[in-house]
Design brief:
about 280 residues, alpha+beta, four-stranded antiparallel sheet, 11 helices, about 15% strand, globular
């Protein structure tokens, strides 16, 4: 998988309305995979209309995702249909863990270190590596040394192999023994002040949904929007141990809100999807 394709899978820049291709990735990742993995073009267009995308926007987004190796076109049921590229199943499985499961590391857990060295003749690969590690949520210790909670080790190996960059990176799991307090180091490695308002924006944007009444169709639209925005946050904060974060870290409130929204919206959203794809 190319770094560009990975951008589509992990999510859009936070804050702006998600682009159609990012919504499509959520629809495939959460719903199409659970319903056989294949969706008819007409069904996808119907679902995306609920999300505010017209047929031409859907077709354009699908074409882009096909070019980037995310979607594959097939024939099914006598018509055109799409499925995710088989090579991305590991990426989506890892995404499921990030999005829907407890993702906070403990302070006693090992750290994952990624060290890379790229020959001068292949200098452009350095940018690709940095971009991929940033996308996975790594913090930067120094130019060629990056760090993340050890629990994303398998996901990191999968992503590096998919991008064809694993041959340039050495991965290590271990403990930190430097004298500087780890709390201070974490605040150097990650830009926590930049992440905090994004969590706050998620809370402010979606908290009203908890008390709203909606149809199955509306629940689907809200659920896709919630997942699409939350996905991006889980890659900015890869589960840094709570003990190492500022007191009253707003990310915990956002995590609780996401869990409540997911539990509340998914049953109705699932009914809508099942009706469309039946």
């Amino acid at each position: 998988m190319s770094p560009e394709a990975s951008d589509d899978v992990t999510g859009a820049a936070f804050g702006a309305a998600p682009r159609p291709q990012h919504l499509i990735v959520t629809v495939f990742g959460r719903y199409v995979r659970a319903h056989g993995g294949v969706i008819q073009v007409a069904d996808l267009i119907e679902m995306m209309a609920v999300l505010g995308a017209d047929a031409s926007a859907v077709r354009s987004a699908v074409s882009r995702l096909k070019r980037r190796g995310v979607l594959v076109s097939i024939r099914s049921g006598g018509g055109a249909a799409y499925r995710l590229a088989e090579s991305l199943e590991g990426v989506f499985s890892a995404g499921d863990h990030r999005i829907f499961e407890d993702r906070r590391a403990q302070a006693s857990d090992p750290w994952l270190l990624a060290s890379f060295s790229v020959p001068e003749r292949e200098r452009p690969l350095r940018h690709q590596l940095r971009k991929l590690l940033q996308r996975l949520g790594f913090g930067q210790v120094s130019g060629g040394l990056w760090i993340a909670p050890g629990r994303i080790a398998d996901e990191t190996r999968t992503a590096l192999r998919g991008a064809g960059l694993d041959g340039y990176v050495e991965l290590f799991l271990g403990d930190r023994v430097s004298d500087e307090p780890l709390v201070q180091a974490v605040r150097r490695w990650w830009d926590l002040p930049a992440i905090e308002p994004m969590y706050r924006g998620f809370i402010d944007g979606f908290r009203p949904v908890l008390t709203a009444e909606e149809t199955d169709q509306e629940a689907f639209a809200l659920h896709v929007g919630v997942i699409t925005q939350w996905r991006r946050l889980t890659y900015l904060d890869p589960g840094i141990p709570l003990e190492l974060l500022p007191e009253g870290w707003v990310g915990l409130e956002a995590e609780r809100l996401f869990a409540e929204l997911h539990q509340r919206l998914e049953p109705a959203a699932e009914r809508f999807v099942a009706a469309v794809m039946s």
